[in-house]
Amino acid sequence: MKIRPVTTEDRPKVIALLQNAFPGSSYEKRLVENLHNNQRMLHEWICIIRNRAVAYIAYSNAYAAKEVCGLHLAPLAVNTEYQNRGIGSELLRFSLRQKIIKENTLFVLGDRRYYEKFGFTPCTSPLCPFTKNNANFLSIRNKAGSSFTVGYEPEFT
User: Fold this and answer.
1) Count of CB atoms situated within 10 Å of the CB of 98
2) Which pTM does this prediction carry?
3) Angle at the Cα of 60 (from 17 to 134), degrees rounded to 5?
């Protein structure tokens, strides 16, 4: 298993992986395509096994008004043939060790039981615009003292 940054040449593999990992949904595929097409700042890694892209993780900017206040983890995807083998967990742990990720507040909207294993804790502030009462909104290194609604890149809406 090899984990490395995503290159421009990897993008078709990433899109195919997202289609496989999220059957019945085109949201994640469109999200990543649009983030790439609009040249948004992304921190992203891919996991390769036997020359095949089997997992992907990306972080994009989080905003307080127009100022960057951290990073959003989304999406995290694992090919359906490789799920429940710890590959997504290993990719997440790898990403959390990267300098740019360690230096930022992180936000994720996802399964609380899963993400708490990696140090994420429930987040009461800032508010997430995609969930009621911040259900399943978690963070790491969150020092937000005031209440605000965290911003996402426009491609998320």
Assistant:
1) 13
2) 0.96
3) 100
